[in-house]
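Researcher: Quick test of sequence recovery. Tokens follow.
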């Protein structure tokens, strides 16, 4: 890390600008009270339902605002401490005051998050049960059933994440700890996407995915800006670098927040007319705030950020020059950053207001009723109506957009192509075959998770097995041959100011001990095979069929396990030492033998797997679930063989290539040193012969 890149020292006890936080919370509280009065979000429940009382009804939205602001600030502070704020000159990795200040903020905000989370669950339970806190039955009812209700379960998980992050931040000092705790904070916010209106809505999956992405982007965006303002006194002259890095992140968040917000709104609003309802009006208020914040972001990019890094020439330092003194760097810094800071403070207040409106929105009855009256069995079981009997055309025409997987595929392709363009721009080449493999792999992923296989794989075993085998054995081969890690390490510039960027994170993962274990072909093969057994012969399969989270985790697991297996066999990317091709082929053949055994055990099975699901859904075009299961077994066996053959051919091709490379290398060496190796070998043979000759005579 070059000296000039190291930032100037931090004032010994900088006064962090924490004053902004209570102001943002106050604006949020005011907004939530106004919005709740407008939409009736804190009104007593309808006739016939028991009321937990006004204290509970009003405390809930107020505590939620505090929860959302503190959770966001915790995440923002860790993000800044680990990945955004340059290191302090002359300070080591573990005693950098900038990182220490970020941890102090994360500790305080994290504990508020955890406490507000627990209070939110207690009051939420009282409200849902219609029990006041003073009710003697409250504690036993709470203790016996709070965990079984998803909304409160995720609330407790999120509060626990807040507590872990706060405790960790109180002890940690390294940037890697900030990144690790930041990941826990991200999870703690993301899991909340499973609660609220999203949980019950007809288009449950879209609602959950949208709210998850919405909360995450709002958390990073608002938390980042709050952390920037609070920690600014520690930045010194590196404010420009910090703001530019945050600004890139803020743009991603703004786009994600807008798209996910609109998607969340579509699951709760049936018609344009619904925008005139109280719920609809609150959404319009948020849209207005969103656009205003977009304009502020644009103005930052157009003017205030440029001013931060511009030369001092334009800065009017009238007072200082009148005094005949040259304004110090600190004063100039203050002057240059003023327009930025003023606008940023305005933004955080508007964000606080939007948080307030959002909290009331989440407690207001949406026009589209959450629970579909008299749902069909398929809708009750899977969240989707039963699909008609599949036809040949279904392979092309059956689509049901799974936004999260669609977005994942498009972002993966977009980032990869952007990386290739960066290499090309600086004159470096990148094999086209790799780009084709990567793009094909993700296009196949998008089809598999949004098309016929995703629709029928949710209700019939045979179709599920085609989906499973494609995700486990076919898509990963394409992705692995795309060599994404190599591209990332070549396209993403290394950080030189002590911060941790995506390149540093990729390098850390690839060289981690965990990767050494995971990169062992026996481990990868074992994981490949045993996860099949565990998944189908425990309740996991049924959970994946019935729940959105289960379906998400199943798909992620199949792709990752398949990717790891394909990578240890034919991977191009850097990682732990690769086994010799012959050994890899043996592992492949052994795994495929096990895989065939898996297929046969399904074919020969006499009981239906996930009987509670398949016997209940009873699709007219699957008259015999066991027969369909046996078809699934043959599919597993059949589809498993082709990719295995491709893997074997690629291993053999790589073997041949590495051998011929080795041969070329030793030929070149022989040319260079007159084949010293052969000479030495012949000498050794001659000596041996001479020795033997002597010994025998
Ligand atoms: C295009 C603009 C936006 C739209 C259409 C939108 C829409 C929504 C919808 C429909 C919900 C779910 C409410 C429910 O559970 O019923 C929501 C929740 C939320 N929104 Fe937005 N939003 C937008 C912008 C924003 C902005 C700019 C912020 C913050 C700066 C924000 C923060 C939140 C938060 C924190 C929640 C969760 C509230 C809770 O569950 O307590 N949204 N939004």
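Model:
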């Amino acid at each position: 890390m070059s000296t000039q890149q190291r930032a100037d020292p931090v004032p010994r006890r900088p006064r962090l600008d924490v004053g902004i936080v209570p102001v943002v919370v106050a604006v949020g509280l005011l907004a939530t009270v106004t919005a709740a009065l407008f939409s009736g979000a804190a009104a007593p429940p309808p006739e016939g339902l028991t009321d937990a009382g006004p204290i509970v009804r009003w405390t809930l939205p107020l505590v939620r605002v505090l929860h959302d602001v503190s959770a966001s600030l915790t995440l923002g502070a860790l993000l800044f401490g680990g990945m955004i704020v340059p290191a302090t000159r002359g300070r080591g990795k573990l005693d950098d005051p900038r990182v220490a200040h970020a941890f102090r903020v994360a500790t305080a905000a994290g504990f508020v998050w955890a406490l507000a989370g627990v209070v939110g669950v207690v009051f939420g339970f009282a409200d849902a049960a219609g029990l006041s806190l003073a009710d003697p039955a409250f504690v036993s009812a709470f203790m016996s059933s709070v965990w079984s209700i998803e909304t409160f379960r995720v609330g407790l998980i999120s509060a626990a994440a807040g507590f872990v992050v706060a405790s960790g931040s109180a002890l940690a000092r390294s940037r890697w700890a900030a990144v690790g705790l930041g990941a826990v904070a991200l999870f703690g916010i993301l899991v909340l996407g499973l609660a609220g209106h999203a949980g019950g809505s007809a288009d449950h999956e879209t609602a959950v995915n949208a709210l998850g992405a919405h909360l995450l982007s709002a958390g990073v965006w608002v938390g980042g800006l709050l952390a920037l303002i609070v920690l600014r006194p520690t930045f010194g002259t590196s404010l420009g670098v910090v703001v530019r890095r945050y600004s890139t992140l803020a743009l991603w968040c703004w786009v994600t927040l807008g798209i996910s917000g609109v998607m969340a709104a579509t699951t709760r609003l049936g018609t344009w007319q619904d925008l005139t309802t109280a719920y609809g009006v609150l959404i319009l208020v948020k849209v207005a705030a969103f656009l205003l914040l977009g304009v502020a972001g644009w103005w930052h990019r157009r003017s205030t950020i440029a001013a931060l890094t511009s030369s001092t020439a334009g800065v009017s330092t009238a007072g200082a020059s009148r005094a005949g003194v040259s304004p110090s760097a600190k004063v100039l810094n203050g002057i240059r950053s003023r327009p930025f800071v003023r606008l940023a403070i305005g933004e955080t207040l508007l964000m606080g207001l939007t948080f307030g409106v959002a909290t009331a929105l989440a407690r207001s009855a949406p026009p589209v009723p959450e629970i579909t009256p008299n749902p069909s069995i398929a809708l009750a079981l899977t969240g989707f109506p039963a699909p008609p009997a599949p036809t040949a055309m279904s392979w092309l025409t059956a689509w049901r957009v799974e936004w999260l997987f669609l977005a994942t595929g498009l972002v993966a392709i977009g980032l990869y192509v952007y990386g290739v363009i960066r290499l090309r721009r600086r004159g470096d080449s990148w094999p086209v075959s790799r780009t084709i493999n990567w793009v094909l792999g993700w296009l196949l992923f998008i089809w598999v998770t949004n098309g016929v296989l995703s629709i029928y794989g949710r209700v019939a075993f045979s179709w599920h097995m085609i989906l499973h085998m494609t995700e486990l054995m076919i898509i990963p081969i394409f992705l692995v041959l795309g060599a994404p890690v190599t591209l990332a390490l070549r396209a993403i510039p290394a950080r030189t100011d002590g911060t941790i960027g995506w390149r540093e994170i990729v390098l850390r993962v690839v060289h981690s001990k965990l990767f050494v274990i995971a990169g062992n072909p026996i481990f990868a093969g074992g994981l490949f095979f045993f996860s099949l057994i565990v998944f189908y012969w425990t309740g996991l399969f049924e959970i994946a069929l019935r729940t959105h989270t289960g379906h998400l985790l199943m798909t992620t697991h199949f792709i990752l396990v398949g990717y790891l297996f394909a990578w240890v066999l034919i991977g191009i990317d850097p990682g732990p030492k690769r086994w010799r091709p012959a050994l890899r082929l043996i592992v492949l053949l052994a795994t495929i033998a096990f895989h065939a055994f898996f297929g046969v055990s399904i074919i020969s099975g006499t009981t239906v797997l996930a009987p509670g699901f398949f016997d209940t859904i009873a699709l007219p075009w699957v008259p015999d679930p066991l027969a369909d299961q046996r078809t699934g077994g043959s599919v597993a066996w059949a589809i498993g063989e082709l990719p295995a053959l491709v893997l074997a051919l690629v291993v053999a091709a790589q073997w041949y290539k590495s051998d011929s490379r080795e041969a070329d290398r030793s030929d070149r060496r022989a040319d260079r040193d007159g084949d010293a190796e052969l000479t030495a070998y012949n000498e050794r043979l001659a000596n041996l012969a001479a020795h033997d000759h002597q010994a025998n005579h």
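The chain has 28 helices and no strands.
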